[in-house]
Amino acid sequence: MSMTRKKVNLIILIMAYSHAMQALRPLSTRCFLRSSRSISNSLAIGPRRHYETTLLFAGSAASVAMMSSRNSSMTTRCAPATAFSEDFLQYDHYSGVTLTLTDTFSMDENDFAETLADSLAAWKADGRKGIWIQVASSHSDKIHTCLQQGFEFHTVVHHCQKETTSNVADAIRSSNQALQEQDKVLVLTQWLPKHIPNRLPPGPTHQVGVGCLIFHPLDWNLENTTGVPPAQRRMLVVQEKTGPAAAWKLWKMPTGLADPGEDIHMAAVRECKEETGLDATFCGILAIRQAHAQPSIKNNKSVVMRAHSDLFAICILQLVGGGTRQTSMDDLSTLQTCPDEIADIQWMTVHDYCNQERWQSSPVYLELNRAILNASRQTLFDAATLPLGFSSEISSTNTLYKSALLK
């Protein structure tokens, strides 16, 4: 075939392709590049195959243009050449996509890299913005590929399967059990539109701690009928075996961190049982302290003591049985305290607790101690765990903490 004939064929091909593009309106950039790459590759093969390939493509493009002219309202979207199964994809209301690599996901590293690149191009062309990938430990070999294609580490979360139940309490227990049993997954993210600031939410920013404020049954109750002056009320305190409080020989209320998926009031009841061996019920939240991670200078270097901000809720608990256990409550030597954490336990008056030397140089703890001194039914926030509603398909719950004055 002469060089002139080749040029004529190529011109015919380009004109037909251009007409098709105008008729269909903008297709994906990756579609155009893929088609252009096919044209370029065809020029490298033999004359006869080149001639056939050129005519085939020109005829296909002209046919598409004719079809589009019959239905000007038709729109076409370029799908990726290779795509992930919809079983592993979720789409959110914020133009985002989540790809979850569970244990049932099967794709070797090379295929995964190609499919991810194709999908990112298609999602970007479709106007998608935030892309999330959840990687189970069984697919850790895919992490390097994700990083190479622009993803960043976000967080590590528990991955659990959704279970439906009509009973709220059963749903909470089932969810908590699933969180403990399921594998942890690494979450990576990428924000596709470079001209818009990244609006994806950050990873977990806070840890939630609880303090268990337990007054002696003879000294305090919700009805405030004991007649004991606030400063002379006895509260349950412990000394820890390790940590800063242990170094200072500080008497403190039992404390701990909430587990993933655990409500604040339930965390307080659990921590009380784990550290002291005592069963208690939740009365209300007295106060909440919020603290943010701040770097400190150590050996001329900036050191961040913790990675997360801290929310700490002081919860008033009432011992199960109340006044009926008043005699046994005076002797705490038989309690089954946590052997790994608790060195000692006793009743201490609020006055003596608040006047420990360590507190005196801390404005925030002086204010917290003042709240403990003035604790009453009116100062508490009650807890109510309620279903979210809206749809029978939504099984999540919300716990509302509101002032006791709003009853």
Distance between the termini: 92 Å
Q: Helix tally?
A: 11
Structural class by sheet pairing and helices: alpha+beta
Shape: elongated
Low-confidence stretches: 20-77, 160-181, 323-327
Order of SSEs, N→C? HHHEEHEHEHEEEHEHEEEEHEHHEE
Taking the sheet with the most strands, its summary is: 5 strands, mixed
Q: How much helicity do the residues have?
A: 25-40%
What is the total tally of β strands?
Answer: 15
Mean of residue pLDDT?
76
Q: Report strand %.
A: 25-35%
Q: How are the strands of the biggest sheet laid out side by side? A: 1-2-3-5-4
Radius of gyration: 32 Å
Description of the molecule:
The chain has about 400 residues and is α+β, with helices and mostly antiparallel strands. The protein has eleven helices and 15 strands. A hairpin with a 5-residue loop joins strand 1 and strand 2 (about 95-100). Helix 1 packs parallel to helix 3. It starts with a helix and ends with a strand. Mean pLDDT is about 75; it is low at about 20-75, about 160-180 and about 325.
Could you list some keywords that capture this structure?
407 residues, 33% helix, 4-stranded mixed β-sheet, alpha+beta, elongated
Q: What secondary-structure arrangement, pairings included, does this model have?
A:
Layout: H1 3-24, H2 29-42, H3 47-70, E1 89-91, E2 97-101, H4 109-125, E3 130-136, H5 143-148, E4 152-158, H6 168-181, E5 184-191, E6 206-214, E7 234-240, H7 244-247, E8 255-257, H8 264-276, E9 280-291, E10 295-298, E11 301-304, E12 309-319, H9 326-329, E13 342-349, H10 350-354, H11 363-373, E14 381-387, E15 397-403
Parallel strand pairs: 2-3, 6-12
Antiparallel strand pairs: 1-2, 3-5, 4-5, 6-8, 7-13, 9-12, 10-11, 14-15
Helix pairs in contact: 1-3
